[in-house]
Specification:
Keywords: Membrane, Transmembrane, Transmembrane helix
Order of helices and strands: HEEHEEEHEHEEEEEEE
Structural class: alpha+beta
Number of strands: 13
Number of helices: 4
Protein name: C-type lectin domain-containing protein
InterPro entries: C-type_lectin-like, C-type_lectin-like/link_sf, CTDL_fold
CATH topology of the domain at 116-291: Mannose-Binding Protein A, Chain A
Radius of gyration: 55 Å
Helix content: 25-40%
CATH architecture of the domain at 116-291: Roll
Strand content: 15-25%
Oligomer: single chain
Shape: rod-shaped
Largest sheet: 7 strands, mixed
CATH superfamily of the domain at 116-291: Mannose-Binding Protein A, subunit A
Length: about 290
């Protein structure tokens, strides 16, 4: 058996040992550098939070330059300074409190539902189709020269129409108001023009108490508002193209030609034109109530 022996060179071994040693030292330096960088990074990250905690809590005291002393935050000047510093930082950092909300407006009770109402001075009546308002007025004419058309013109100027009577309640309430006005004038009998005209074929000859006339205001319906004086509607051929209705207003102390024929509130078939009797002339205007 043959054995081969390798020649050993001490200089090569030494060189290799030196290279290994140098590599180990470089590796150690690299690890120390990484560790140092990590520590510096941790320091830089944690220091602001620690400082913020101390600043937020006051830190227990604050140094006042120039006086050479250390004053506690419990003193009045220290408290004031700490408060100012806190406010200073508070202005630059977002607050943890929720954003300020404006106060809620006070609770207002619901508004009551609107309803139809009449203007001041107008009588208010509940009709099947809503509130109906009636104004009773004196024309200022005491000699009879005030026709039914004049009364209609007066109502039109108020945004209303010459009205009829829906029922007995309306008829008598209007008569009562007109009577008060008549007595205030020092008179005992007068007439109110009513919003009605004769039906075809009934201008002269009566067609009965409920079929001779019709209401003209466009709102009044039915026959409950008719209540005639004795012998009315008559068969007279009154002047004019149509016949009309007036309501008699009679004071309790009236004495005259109409006694026994008309009482306060009765209706009378009559001419539509002037000159009319009884001479004191009244009107009654009607309109729908207004929602308010």
């Amino acid at each position: 058996m043959n054995f081969a022996f390798t020649t050993f060179d001490p200089s090569q071994l030494f060189s290799r040992l030196m290279a290994i040693t140098h590599a180990s030292q470089c590796l150690m330096k690299l690890k120390r550098a990484k560790t140092m960088k990590l520590l510096i990074l941790v320091f830089l990250v944690t220091v602001p939070f620690i400082a913020a905690i101390f600043l937020e809590g006051g830190g227990g005291g604050r140094y006042h330059g120039g006086g050479g002393g250390f004053s506690s935050s419990s003193s009045s000047s220290g408290s004031s300074g700490s408060s100012e510093e806190h406010e200073h930082h508070h202005g630059h950092r977002p607050s943890n409190r929720p954003p300020h909300r404006p106060p809620r407006p006070p609770h207002r009770p619901p508004r009551p539902p609107t309803r139809e109402q009449c203007d001041d001075g107008w009588l208010e009546f509940q009709r099947p189709n809503g509130i109906w308002c009636i104004l009773v007025g004196y024309s200022g004419v005491s000699n009879g020269w005030y026709s039914q058309q004049d009364a209609q013109n007066t109502c039109t100027g108020m945004g209303a129409v010459l009205t009829g009577f829906q029922n007995e309640n309306e008829r008598m309430k209007v008569a009562e108001v007109a009577l008060d006005k008549l007595i205030a004038l020092g008179q005992t009998v007068g007439g109110i023009w009513v919003g009605a005209t004769n039906l075809p074929g009934c201008r002269v000859n009566s067609c009965g108490p409920y079929n001779t006339f019709q209401w003209t205001d466009g709102e009044t319906t039915g026959i409950e508002g008719f209540k005639w004086g004795v012998g009315e509607p008559d068969n007279s051929n009154w002047p004019g193209a149509t016949a009309c209705i007036q309501q008699f207003i009679v004071a309790p102390n009236y004495v005259g030609m109409w006694n026994g024929y008309f009482v306060n509130g009765d209706l009378d078939k009559y001419q539509c034109v002037s000159q009319a009797t009884p001479p004191p002339r009244f009107y009654m205007c009607g309109k729908r109530g207004v929602r308010r």
